[in-house]
User: What shape does this take?
Amino acid sequence: MSSPRPVQFLRRAFGPLVEPAVFNFWAREVGSTASRDRVLARVTAKRAESSRAVTLELQPNRHFVGFKAGQHVNLTVEIDGRRVTRSYSLTGVPNAEGSLSLTVQKIEGGQVSAHLFSNLQVGDVVELDAAFGEMTLPETLSAPLLFLAAGSGITPLMSLTRELAQRGMPVETTLIYWARHRADLCFLSELKALAAKEPKFRFLVALTGDAAIGTDELRGRPSSELLASAVASLSSQSVYACGPAGFVEQVETLVAPIARSFQSEAFTPPTFTPAASSQTVTLMLAKSNRVVTVRSGEPLLAALEAQGIKPPSGCRMGICNTCACGKREGLSRNLKNGGENAEPEANLRICVSSAQSDLTLDL
Assistant: This one.
């Protein structure tokens, strides 16, 4: 009789007797995705998607509870002995096998994206959190859809496009995908093939660097003229937009006042440029009983990390809620919308919040 696999032996012999953290450690040591309480996933395939992007196929363990097209996951890897977490969009659709796909664009200076692009191999194991995100499709669709994507913003919209294809393309759908160069475009063959197959699906590329050479290519940044040439009636469209913050702000200005509805996600963390008159404020970290000084207006997560404090974080863009913590007192500002919050016992996403006065945080 054959001997049990190492993880089966671990689970049967020691699972009920050891702490989850100990079981998880030894399961990882023998190369397993088994875990008492964490979502681990093995890389089953890796392929180039463009000159700067790769798609990872993942098979998660039994702790992953599923996702909706258009959602994200926080992915954790170990780099140089340190666990690092970033948020990535799922690019596939739910399936019977429970497998996942996500597409990662290598970002200049991006520690995790560079590691996933260059170093992660088939057979490696990564850690995932539960899927999150609100940019999903309703069960019933009645209005035409307009998807506007730039750069890595194509990833959630690709997932939504694949869901529509799986549903038989129930409504007229147009996808306009901006990139600087043609070589930067992901999923190009699949999207062109889908447009050729599905009468209700139209796919257009908008290039800001290369010249347009085909009838399905446009040239230029988002503008009223470009959108008018691509879509007959914006007022009838339900619009989904995703990309860098500047892109999303631009298309929101152009489209949101006209469109039937508008949803967006921006994939750019907030930036902070200190002014000459920048004041400092004090952060009281109640749980760790520490006091630190930071600049007013600086993203709290970045300010804390600069002082060697590493709160949990994920997307760093105010989407995933991983970095959320309680604020007991003080005035804070949301860096995405400029709103100020003076309420005690508020919940802050510290990656997109700054201190406008001394704050007390539950950290």
